[in-house]
Amino acid sequence: MSNQTGNTLLALLTGAAIGAGIGILYAPDRGDKTRKKIRKNAKSAQRELEKQLKSTTTKLSSQAEKTRANFENKLEDTLSTMSYKADDILVALEAKLEDLREQNSKLQKAATSKK
Question: Transmembrane region positions (predicted)?
Protein backbone atom coordinates (compact mmCIF):
# COMPACT_ATOMS: atom_id res chain seq x y z
CA MET A 1 0.00 0.00 0.00
CA SER A 2 1.22 3.45 -0.73
CA ASN A 3 2.09 5.82 2.09
CA GLN A 4 -0.76 8.16 1.15
CA THR A 5 -3.33 5.36 1.32
CA GLY A 6 -1.94 4.22 4.67
CA ASN A 7 -2.22 7.76 6.01
CA THR A 8 -5.79 8.00 4.74
CA LEU A 9 -6.78 4.73 6.41
CA LEU A 10 -5.12 5.79 9.66
CA ALA A 11 -6.91 9.14 9.57
CA LEU A 12 -10.23 7.40 8.91
CA LEU A 13 -9.78 4.99 11.82
CA THR A 14 -8.61 7.77 14.13
CA GLY A 15 -11.60 9.91 13.18
CA ALA A 16 -14.00 7.03 13.77
CA ALA A 17 -12.50 6.29 17.19
CA ILE A 18 -12.56 9.96 18.25
CA GLY A 19 -16.10 10.36 16.97
CA ALA A 20 -17.26 7.29 18.86
CA GLY A 21 -15.60 8.48 22.07
CA ILE A 22 -17.13 11.96 21.83
CA GLY A 23 -20.47 10.41 20.98
CA ILE A 24 -20.40 8.31 24.13
CA LEU A 25 -19.41 11.24 26.32
CA TYR A 26 -22.07 13.61 25.01
CA ALA A 27 -24.78 11.15 24.13
CA PRO A 28 -28.22 12.38 25.09
CA ASP A 29 -29.66 8.95 24.34
CA ARG A 30 -29.83 5.85 26.49
CA GLY A 31 -26.94 3.37 26.44
CA ASP A 32 -28.59 0.88 24.07
CA LYS A 33 -29.32 3.62 21.51
CA THR A 34 -25.80 4.93 21.82
CA ARG A 35 -24.36 1.43 21.30
CA LYS A 36 -26.54 1.01 18.19
CA LYS A 37 -25.25 4.31 16.80
CA ILE A 38 -21.67 3.29 17.53
CA ARG A 39 -22.26 -0.08 15.84
CA LYS A 40 -23.82 1.66 12.85
CA ASN A 41 -20.90 4.10 12.56
CA ALA A 42 -18.37 1.27 12.98
CA LYS A 43 -20.04 -0.74 10.21
CA SER A 44 -20.08 2.32 7.99
CA ALA A 45 -16.38 2.89 8.65
CA GLN A 46 -15.71 -0.80 7.94
CA ARG A 47 -17.56 -0.60 4.60
CA GLU A 48 -15.60 2.51 3.66
CA LEU A 49 -12.31 0.81 4.57
CA GLU A 50 -13.25 -2.27 2.56
CA LYS A 51 -14.19 -0.11 -0.42
CA GLN A 52 -10.93 1.81 -0.22
CA LEU A 53 -8.92 -1.42 0.20
CA LYS A 54 -10.62 -2.92 -2.86
CA SER A 55 -9.94 0.24 -4.87
CA THR A 56 -6.30 0.33 -3.80
CA THR A 57 -5.87 -3.38 -4.55
CA THR A 58 -7.35 -2.91 -8.01
CA LYS A 59 -5.07 0.06 -8.72
CA LEU A 60 -2.00 -1.81 -7.52
CA SER A 61 -2.89 -4.89 -9.58
CA SER A 62 -3.42 -2.74 -12.66
CA GLN A 63 -0.12 -0.94 -12.15
CA ALA A 64 1.71 -4.23 -11.56
CA GLU A 65 0.25 -5.64 -14.81
CA LYS A 66 1.29 -2.54 -16.76
CA THR A 67 4.78 -2.70 -15.27
CA ARG A 68 5.10 -6.41 -16.10
CA ALA A 69 3.97 -5.85 -19.70
CA ASN A 70 6.36 -2.91 -20.07
CA PHE A 71 9.23 -5.00 -18.69
CA GLU A 72 8.45 -7.87 -21.06
CA ASN A 73 8.38 -5.49 -24.04
CA LYS A 74 11.70 -3.92 -23.07
CA LEU A 75 13.24 -7.34 -22.51
CA GLU A 76 12.02 -8.52 -25.92
CA ASP A 77 13.43 -5.40 -27.58
CA THR A 78 16.76 -5.85 -25.82
CA LEU A 79 17.02 -9.51 -26.77
CA SER A 80 16.13 -8.71 -30.37
CA THR A 81 18.75 -5.96 -30.54
CA MET A 82 21.35 -8.26 -29.00
CA SER A 83 20.50 -10.96 -31.55
CA TYR A 84 21.03 -8.55 -34.47
CA LYS A 85 24.32 -7.37 -33.00
CA ALA A 86 25.47 -10.95 -32.49
CA ASP A 87 24.62 -11.70 -36.14
CA ASP A 88 26.63 -8.66 -37.25
CA ILE A 89 29.60 -9.82 -35.17
CA LEU A 90 29.40 -13.32 -36.64
CA VAL A 91 29.30 -11.96 -40.20
CA ALA A 92 32.33 -9.76 -39.49
CA LEU A 93 34.24 -12.69 -37.93
CA GLU A 94 33.39 -14.95 -40.87
CA ALA A 95 34.66 -12.29 -43.30
CA LYS A 96 37.86 -11.90 -41.28
CA LEU A 97 38.31 -15.68 -41.18
CA GLU A 98 37.92 -15.86 -44.96
CA ASP A 99 40.54 -13.09 -45.38
CA LEU A 100 42.91 -15.00 -43.12
CA ARG A 101 42.37 -18.21 -45.08
CA GLU A 102 43.18 -16.38 -48.32
CA GLN A 103 46.33 -14.88 -46.82
CA ASN A 104 47.36 -18.28 -45.47
CA SER A 105 46.79 -19.85 -48.87
CA LYS A 106 48.93 -17.16 -50.57
CA LEU A 107 51.70 -17.61 -48.01
CA GLN A 108 51.68 -21.40 -48.47
CA LYS A 109 51.85 -21.00 -52.27
CA ALA A 110 54.71 -18.53 -51.94
CA ALA A 111 56.56 -20.85 -49.56
CA THR A 112 56.18 -23.87 -51.84
CA SER A 113 57.19 -21.91 -54.93
CA LYS A 114 60.45 -20.79 -53.24
CA LYS A 115 61.53 -24.35 -52.56
Answer: 6-27
